[in-house]
Design brief:
The structure holds two protein chains of two kinds. Chain A has no helices and six strands. Chain A is an all-beta fold. Chain A has a single domain, classed as Rubrerythrin, domain 2. In chain B, the strands form four sheets. Chain B has a six-stranded mixed β-sheet, sandwiched between helices. A four-stranded antiparallel β-sheet of chain B has the order 10-11-9-12. A three-stranded antiparallel β-sheet of chain B has the order 4-5-16. Strand 6 of chain A pairs parallel with strand 14 of chain B, so a sheet runs across the interface.
Chain lengths: 56, 348
């Protein structure tokens, strides 16, 4: 099973076999959103935060 | 020497406030024909429509061609192109056209680009197309900045609160205006309690649009026209029935149906395609939720498909006399859109 290390709390996160590039996963330990930025080699980055903005 | 994108420049020269879009639509229809769209036409609502591909799967890129009033002379200052609609939202619509013009469509797909009329009004153009298309993916053209994707827009509901009271001497107080203001203040207190600890996108944001009163010598009538920006958790119906409907001593009326808030799934195939595309263009992607409403609030609930809003430009410049767009950012937005279509398997 593939796994990645959480960038926030260093927990090991097991990934589903069908994980996709740019998919957002949630660390089960600390709850942070991580984005799969590469499948080979497997790599994650912190997922984009949701900002707020004026807009009609 | 900066190379100004021809579609954007041409569209900015066609000043097109809501209700006066015909010349801009005619220009864009011709522009899409010149760019080898297989079909380009003005539909019955007056929208500009361009189509590439004949496949059974459809993606719609829905921008709007109207702007608010206030013509701004089109001019270039450094990298910034000034003009009414440069940000809201001819920049986005032009980027859609330029991106689609530059790709080859997979045989399974059809791309429809629409420049809708009246988005700044009552969204006549978007309401017309809602039930005439059934896309599998939709991108709405509104400024998010080239490296961000707009996931959410708040809902909206307008209403009129009316109070009628017998005329009393002003020394006694308690006239129709006093009643209205007291009721409104009570509502604001309830809203304040609801909003506690919530983000802007989760909050109820009410505002008074107009207040008038009149008297016939026997009775005074006060009317408060109010507009409210609503979160996902409060539908227009709930706002009318469980909030305004609870107000004592006032009559509540509304001329138009409200618009529910919308928020896209940040883990859909479409948002993934955008995240990859923004990174491919050298950007750090972001998500944004907005305090206003747009055509996505209308079409996304009907189409029930992945839908986000995207476009170059800073929405803080929307509707301002200083409206301008960075040519460099426009170019990056076109690159992102080209990559999105490729990441989705729609183009090669």
């Amino acid at each position: 099973m593939k796994s990645v290390i959480c960038l926030e709390c260093e927990a090991e996160i097991n990934l589903d076999a069908g994980v996709e590039k740019n998919e957002i996963i949630v660390c089960p330990d600390c709850g942070v959103d991580l984005e799969i930025v590469s499948l080979d080699p497997l790599a994650v980055e912190l997922a984009p935060m949701e900002e707020e903005d004026w807009g009609e | 020497m900066i190379d100004i994108p021809e579609t954007l420049l041409g569209l900015l020269h066609q000043y097109s406030p809501s209700g006066s879009e015909a010349a801009a639509v005619k220009w864009l229809v011709q522009r899409m024909a010149d760019l080898q769209f297989e079909q380009s036409f003005m539909d019955e609502a007056g929208n500009a429509v361009g189509i590439k591909g004949t496949g059974p799967h459809q993606i719609i890129l829905l921008g709007h061609i109207d702007t608010v009033k206030g013509e701004i002379p089109v001019r270039l200052e450094g990298d910034n192109l000034y003009g009414r609609g440069s940000v809201d939202a001819k920049g986005s619509l032009s980027a859609f056209v330029d991106a689609v013009a530059s790709v080859s469509i997979h045989p399974d797909w059809q791309i429809v680009v629409i420049g809708a009329v009246d988005e700044e009004g009552d969204s006549k153009g978007a309401r017309y197309i809602c039930n005439r298309y059934q896309p599998e993916i939709a991108i709405i053209g509104e400024p998010s900045q080239w490296n961000r994707v707009t996931l959410g827009y708040k809902g909206s509901q307008q209403a009129v609160l009316t109070s009628r009271q017998p005329i009393t001497h002003s020394s006694q107080g308690g006239n129709a205006n006093d009643v209205l203001l007291g009721v409104w203040q009570g509502l604001l207190e309830r809203v304040k309690a609801f909003n506690q600890g919530k983000t802007m996108f989760e909050q109820i944001i009410p505002t008074v649009l107009n207040m008038v009163s009149e008297s016939n010598g026997f009775e005074m009538e006060g009317r408060l026209e109010v507009g409210t920006r609503l979160p996902i958790s409060i539908s227009p119906q709930v706002w009318l029935e469980e909030w305004l409907g609870e107000l004592k001593g006032v009559e509540v009326n509304h001329q138009f149906s409200g618009i529910p808030a919308y928020q896209a799934d940040k883990n859909s195939v479409l948002t993934r395609a955008f995240l990859g595309a923004i990174r491919q263009a050298g950007g750090k992607p972001g998500f944004v939720n907005k305090s206003g409403t747009s055509d996505i609030n209308l079409v996304a609930p009907v189409w029930q498909c992945p839908a986000v809003a995207f476009g170059p430009g800073d929405s803080n410049l929307d509707h301002t006399p200083n409206e301008h767009i960075s040519i460099a950012d426009y170019g990056k937005a076109v690159l992102v859109l080209v990559s999105v279509l490729k990441n989705l398997g729609i183009s090669s």
